[in-house]
Specification:
By secondary structure, this protein is of the alpha+beta class. The protein is 38% helix and 13% strand.
């Protein structure tokens, strides 16, 4: 009996210059990981953006570093440009699938906008662009670093965040 490799599944993203960007248009025809075939997560989560178009920051709700990051963003976002949702919540899982990620993937902060999603260092930069001064200027500077360098640094911190900063039993935000 010969083993047959699984069929190729299209990635739910398009390549835009140096980065991968998940867009609503690409998700309509894509099959999400860990999801029932054919579920349109853009439609399923459209209600998140019907009355409020602000982007949503998805974060690891039990990570002390992530909770501290959310508090920092809230303190430096006086205009309230960003909403927050834990990755472990039901809403967070749906938004993860909208972004082309598995519903149990807590490996990265995700910024979900109405028409696209950002992960890792791209998410951090987009979050900084929505914060008060001087963070938008710092984000502009960070964009000049190659994405592979930014994501390498992001991954080193993310992979060790529980070891360095600890975690709690429940979301503190």
């Amino acid at each position: 009996m010969a083993l047959v490799p699984p069929p190729f599944l299209p990635l739910p993203a398009t390549v835009n210059s140096r980065r991968i960007v998940c867009t609503a248009a690409t998700k309509k025809s894509s099959i999400q990981r860990g999801d029932a075939v054919g579920t349109d997560w853009v439609k399923e989560t459209a209600n998140f953006f019907e009355k409020d178009s602000r982007p949503i920051m998805l974060f690891d709700g039990v990570c002390n570093l992530c909770n501290g990051g959310v508090k920092f963003v809230r303190d430096n976002d006086r205009k309230r440009n960003i909403r927050f949702e834990s990755l472990q919540s039901e809403s967070g899982k749906k938004l993860l699938q909208r972004s082309g990620r598995a519903p149990d993937d807590i490996s990265s902060v995700v910024l979900v906008a109405k028409d696209r999603s950002y992960t890792k260092s791209e998410a951090v930069i987009k979050i900084m662009e929505n914060m008060d001064l001087p963070f938008p200027q710092l984000a502009l500077f960070l964009q000049f670093l190659p994405i592979f360098v930014r994501d390498f640094m992001y991954d080193r911190v993310a992979d060790n965040r529980y070891s360095f900063f600890g975690h709690s039993d429940s979301c503190e935000i």
